[in-house]
Amino acid sequence: MPIPPPSLVILAAGRSRRYGRLKQLDPIGPGGAALLDYSIYDAVEAGFGSIVIVVAQGREPEFDEHLEAPRRAGIDIRLAVQDDRGPLVDPRWASVRQKPWGTGYALLCARGSVTGAFGVCNADDFYGAGAFETLVEALGRGGPAACIVPFLLRETLSERGGVSRGLCRVSDEGRLLDIHEGLELRRSDEVDASAVVGVDVRGHALTTSLDAPVSMNLWGFQPTVWPLLGAGFEEFLAGSPGEEDEFYLSEFVGRAIDRGLVACDVLPAGSGWLGVTFPGDRAPVAEALAKRTESRPYPPRLWGPTTPETGGDECS
Fold it and tell me: Cα angle at 91 between 86 and 94, to 5 degrees?
């Protein structure tokens, strides 16, 4: 029996506090495309069979309106609601917690919408077609419970402030040995021209290299990961987390590896990443997407019929 194509879970429930508006739907690309649209387009082209988008409670109408065009094009897109005070959370936290619970919890909110193997990505990152092709091929082979497409840290920094990245340590055999979240990562010429400085999730200072492989949350998982993820979140809650503590997907994978519960293949690194964290990131990303359209990796309109002469007749 043939293996059904994997689903892609897109995490889109972030609050965009530093960006100043809902960056997940910001029409950055030509024809009004958001970064979310490029991930959907590339994923479907690569062979993902369905898309599940995790959105914040109350945002469903905005996303439904934005997704009308790809749905008309026949793409199977469903929404999963991230309710930060919902049934996945211990009731004793519901009245005191204001901040979202993190990427690991966001993924848990999609559990009822996914069957079989699946990929995960962020809605506010552009990964490129090659990264999704690499991921869907790996998921089709089966293999260990997890895999990741990393990027080099130098490609993912912002000139406008510190960013969060999952710092990876990889074995000679291509397995992920551990991964730890680095926060407020930025270049530091004061330390070394090739150095990046920041802090870990406990606030301890760290220094790493520009060429360090990092997670941009482009993961692949087999369905065996779901009970482990659920147990990991319960353990997180049992540790009495503070208001600023988050259940990071990267930290969950790292702990599962440490305990021998999960093996994770590190796939060939992606390239050409784009993303927006700060308002000043928007203009260079828009310029880069326009250049990709001019060189024809993408049609001027992602959804609907297009020709080189007319550029299509449907808007996204």
Answer: 65
Whole-angstrom Cα distance, residue 225 to residue 256?
10
**Exposure class string for 235-259: b at 16+ Cβ within 10 A, else e:** ebbeeeeeeebbbbbbbbbbbbbee
Question: Phi, psi at residue 120, to the nearest 5°?
Answer: -135, 140
Residue 213 pLDDT > 60, yes or no?
A: yes
118 has which bridge partners? 7, 221
The 3-state DSSP class for residue 102 equals coil
Q: CA 23, CA 279: separation in Å to the nearest integer? A: 9
The whole-angstrom separation of Cα 254 and Cα 251 is: 5
Placement of tokens 């760290």 in the chain: 206
pLDDT on residue 87: 56
Q: How far apart are CA 210 and CA 214, in angstroms?
A: 10
Closest CA to 179 of 264, 277, 237, 267: 264
pLDDT tens digits, residue range 92-128?
666 566 678 889 999 999 999 999 999 999 999 999 9
Gyration radius of the chain over CA positions: 19
- The amino acid occupying position 69 is A
DSSP 124: T
What the chain holds in terms of domains, given with CATH numbers, is: 7-150+215-242+262-294 (3.90.550.10)
Residues 79, 84: Cα–Cα separation, whole Å: 16
Distances (CA, A) of 259 to 80, 183, 217: 30, 24, 21
Q: Is the pTM of this model over 0.85?
A: yes
Question: What CA dihedral angle connects 94, 96, 99 and 104, to 10 degrees?
Answer: -40
Q: What is the pLDDT of residues 282-295, one digit of tens each?
A: 999 999 999 999 88
Cα 286 from chain centroid (whole Å) = 19
Cα 305 from Cα 73, distance rounded (Å) = 9
